[in-house]
Amino acid sequence: MRPSPRILMCPPDYYGIEYEINPWMSRSRGSHGDVARQQWQKLHDTLTDLGVQIERLAPVRGLPDLVFTANAGLVYRDRFFSSRFRYPERARESPINEAWFAAHGFRIEQFPEGCYHEGAGDALFCGENLFAGYRIRSDVRGHQWLGEQIGKRVLPLELVNPYFYHLDTCFCPLAPGEAIWYPPAFDEYGRRVIESHIPRLIAANQVEAKRFACNAVVVGRHVITNTGCPDLADQLRRWGYTPHAVELDEFLKAGGSAKCLTLRLDGEEAAIW
Ligand code: ARG
């Protein structure tokens, strides 16, 4: 029997909009603590109902974005490549993440000085390839360095729309050769790279992309997204997936949704390691 999938999450006890580092964030639109907690809990429970084992990172006061564990780093087998965050506000999360991973048997790896890299937010496996978003947060050199370390081919994709500032906001591998994406978030070259390497693609429409349709958590044939993505859900059903909608509006205020709130510890569904 396949071992149950393992996902790292961090409860939103100290979540909030305390600074502005992407166009979704505005300190004048703060989050509602109780609602955020309920929404997070619903995502947590949806995942545990699907057989996922949730690991918890303890929240830390003063680190409102620690909830977005996708950005902690990139996990490859027993190696944890700790993010080198572009903004100092988030760089303070790194020691917390590293302590957790070290305590849970991972080898901690550091990106070279000056190479920004925001972990699984910007680097997603689909089959044998590592799709790598760069320019807004991560640097292309960071991705290349990572590819050399793990012996995988890296396909860099320039992100051109500030609203889709991490790759996981506009691209979601479902299985080897299958993904969800939002084409306008890429330049022409990036679109060609995706189209030529992934034969089956679902394009999210603009309205649903802005509801973070592409920021999905994939567990086997189950796909969890924010609410308000009915076209995506129809398309997923046609392909034999079961969509699940969990309202995550409180996290949209920080520019995050389902996928950002999770970090898969045992390899994403679409990854061939
Ligand atoms: N406020 C956070 C930031 O801008 C949101 C991160 C969302 N995470 C993600 N993987 N897209 O860094």
Helix content: 25-40%
Which residues sit in consecutive blocks of at least 5 with pLDDT less than 50? none
Secondary-structure class: alpha/beta
The CATH topology, please? L-arginine/glycine Amidinotransferase, Chain A
**Which range does the strand content fall in?**
15-25%
Shape, principal axes of CA atoms: globular
Helix and strand run: EHEEEHHEEEHEEEHEHEEHEHE
Radius of gyration, in angstroms, nearest whole number: 17 Å
Going by CATH, the homologous superfamily would be: L-arginine/glycine Amidinotransferase, Chain A
Distance between the termini: 19 Å
> Helix count, per DSSP?
8
CATH architecture: 5-stranded Propeller
What labels would you give this structure?
273 residues; alpha/beta; L-arginine/glycine Amidinotransferase, Chain A; three-stranded mixed sheet; globular; binds arginine
Description:
This protein is α/β, with parallel strands linked by helices and 273 residues long. The chain has a single domain (6-264), classed as 5-stranded Propeller (L-arginine/glycine Amidinotransferase, Chain A). Helix content is 25%, strand content 22%. It contains eight helices and 15 strands. The longest helix is centred in the first third of the chain and has 17 residues, at 33-49. The chain is globular and about 45 Å long. The two termini are 19 Å apart. The model has no long low-confidence stretch (mean pLDDT 98). Arginine (ARG) binds next to loops.
Nutshell version of this structure?
The chain has helices at residues 33-49, 88-91, 94-103, 140-150, 188-197, 206-209, 230-238, 249-252; strands spanning 6-9, 53-56, 73-76, 79-82, 107-110, 123-126, 129-134, 154-158, 171-175, 178-181, 200-203, 217-219, 222-225, 242-245, 263-264.
